[in-house]
């Protein structure tokens, strides 16, 4: 959702603010927390070009990489988030980071703060952060996420990952306090459904299947219920 807020700043001047990815209540809260008085809220509609929509998507990988650098430099999480908020130029992204910082500063979990913005942070990303909070290893978790994202991006750029007339389900499952990558082939041209669930790894050489776990009775046996 893209919102346009008509406001009055602390100097009494009219100012229009744009917010992307917020609901009305959160956008108003963000504006008021920065000293604006909100007069009206309008939802902006229209046809958005695909490449423009991609440019407006929150850069989670870049956010993770910059946060990782600050954490490795010795900054506490709250200070690292505050620094990223100060650096952010876009009003909507900066407002979101400031809101996340405020939630964490209040003593809430980082994953809980991220979960308030599902359009920016996927449930998988929130789960990765949440799992790292149990073992206090946020920096290594962010490092693994950045590496995974870079590997996927490199594979896509080489056009070596894809399927024609095939349906492949790739997902994560937690077992023994470890996130594992699982792959199922749901449809293959001129072939029957394959119920086997396989664990896979991603490296510079591409996708490598590691473990076959055949199911009994047509029901996947992995991950365990």
Condensed summary:
The protein has 225 residues and is of the alpha+beta class.
Describe this structure in words.
By secondary structure, this protein is of the alpha+beta class. It has three domains: 2-53; 58-157, Type II secretion system (T2SS), domain F (Receptor-associated Protein, Up-down Bundle), CATH 1.20.81.30; 167-213, no CATH class. 42% of the residues lie in helices and 24% in strands. A four-stranded antiparallel sheet has the order 4-5-6-7. Strands 2-1-3 form a three-stranded antiparallel sheet. Strand 4 (167-175) and strand 5 form a beta hairpin. Mean pLDDT is 77; it is low at 46-55, 160-164 and 214-225.
What is the topological layout?
Elements: E1 2-8, E2 14-20, H1 24-33, E3 37-43, H2 50-56, H3 60-72, H4 77-87, H5 91-105, H6 110-114, H7 123-135, H8 138-157, E4 167-175, E5 178-187, E6 197-203, E7 206-213
Antiparallel strand pairs: 1-2, 1-3, 4-5, 5-6, 6-7
């Amino acid at each position: 959702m893209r919102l346009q807020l008509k406001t009055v700043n602390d100097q009494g001047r009219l100012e229009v603010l744009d917010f992307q990815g917020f609901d009305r209540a959160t956008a108003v809260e963000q504006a008021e927390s920065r000293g604006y008085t909100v007069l009206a809220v309008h939802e902006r509609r229209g046809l958005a070009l695909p490449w423009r929509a991609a440019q407006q998507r929150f850069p989670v990988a870049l956010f993770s990489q910059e946060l990782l650098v600050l954490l490795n430099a010795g900054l506490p999480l709250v200070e690292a988030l505050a620094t990223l908020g100060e650096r952010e130029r876009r009003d909507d992204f900066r407002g979101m980071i400031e809101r996340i910082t405020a939630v964490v500063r209040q003593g809430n979990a980082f994953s809980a703060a991220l979960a308030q913005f599902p359009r920016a942070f996927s449930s998988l990303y929130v789960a990765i952060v949440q799992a790292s909070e149990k073992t206090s290893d946020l920096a290594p978790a962010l490092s693994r996420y950045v590496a995974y994202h870079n590997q996927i991006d490199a594979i896509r750029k080489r056009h070596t990952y894809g399927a024609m007339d095939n349906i492949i389900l790739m997902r994560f499952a937690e077992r023994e306090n470890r996130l594992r990558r699982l792959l199922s082939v749901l449809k293959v041209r001129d072939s029957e459904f394959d119920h086997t669930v396989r664990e896979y790894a991603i490296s510079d050489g591409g996708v490598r299947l590691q473990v076959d776990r055949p199911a009994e009775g047509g029901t996947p046996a992995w991950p365990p219920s």
